[in-house]
Design brief:
The chain is mainly alpha-helical. Helices cover about 65% and strands about 5% of the residues. It is built from seven helices and three strands; from the N terminus they run αααβααββαα. The chain has a three-stranded antiparallel β-sheet with strand order 1-3-2. β2 and β3 form a beta hairpin. α3 packs across α6.
């Protein structure tokens, strides 16, 4: 019987134990440092803020429900996480042009500048941490980490209960 990659992996509990341990260590270290970057910008933006600002930058202005769906989280979480970003002027909250009751969230010029500053600092940190890696190793690590995150996201989406409709 031919072995598939899934069967090979499933038959090696030691490798799976090592993998889960390394993922746990990574999660702890990433949270401790927030992978915040280097210099004065280090640790200056929490993960939720970074991910929200990054999504608005990549996808443009959108409503709370659309932002929540694109991030795989619920609307109440987005509303709670975006409030301090609005308060600090990093995100602008406006009324939807076609439905004044709906809210549109948009990265402000200040938010864009801050996001670029944090990205640059984090990029410097990634360069520092992988400075002795070959370009192919960086690319492979990024590809595998992206694949791993995509699998986690797909699993989470498959297990998430549907969001209750707004009344």
């Amino acid at each position: 019987m031919p072995t598939t990659p899934d069967m090979t992996t499933a038959s090696d509990p030691g490798l799976l134990d090592a993998l889960q341990h390394q993922v746990a260590v990574f999660a702890r270290r990433a949270e401790q440092t927030r992978l915040g970057g280097v210099g004065q910008v280090r640790n200056s933006m929490d993960r939720a803020a970074y991910l929200l600002l990054n999504r608005l930058d990549k996808e443009g202005p959108m409503g709370v429900k659309a932002l929540a769906a694109s991030m795989g989280i619920d609307s109440s979480t987005v509303t709670r996480q975006v409030a301090p970003l609005v308060d600090t002027g990093l995100v602008k909250r406006t009324s939807h042009p076609e439905d004044g009751r709906a809210v549109v969230l948009q990265l402000s010029p200040r938010g864009e500048a801050r996001l670029n500053e944090v990205r640059s600092s984090r990029r410097d940190l990634m360069a520092e941490l992988t400075e002795d890696w070959a370009a192919e190793e960086r690319e492979s690590f990024c590809t595998l980490l992206t694949r791993f995150n995509s699998a986690l996201s797909a699993r989470q989406m498959a297990q998430a209960p549907p969001e209750a409709p707004a009344s």
